Amino acid sequence: MASIVFRVTVQDMAAFSERLKLLRESRKLTQVRLAELISVNPRAYNRWERGSFIPQLDTLMKIADVLNVTLDELTGRTTTVHEPTVHNQKLYALLQEVDALPDVDQQALIILMDSLVKRAKMDRVLAT
Predict the structure, then answer these.
(1) Cβ-based neighbours of 72, under 8 Å, separated by 6 or more
(2) Which of 37, 50, 56, 61 has the most other CB atoms within 10 Å of its CB?
(3) In this predicted structure, what is the pLDDT of residue 97?
(4) DSSP assignment, residue 6?
């Protein structure tokens, strides 16, 4: 089985670490919280933001998922960073505070929101 070797320059590492920090801060996450969400040691995460190391591909995918960006956005191949659009101001304000909730409460919200969305879709289907 052939292995793939990537060459990463100091400039690449610095650009990645800066982009990682900006994306994390734009989501109002601390280094410790992001490390928890991707199940890594906070010290390891800190090394990525300092530009000492770059995470493995599987970890990059976890980071991209948590930050709600594509791998291209995370790695700097594209610069389009999108924020979710929520038109209801009250809902938007509440969503800004959801990251501060414990994971178990966030999971409960996901289940509740998912069931409400599915019910609305079912209502639309039955109405036609």
Answers:
(1) 78
(2) 37
(3) 86
(4) -
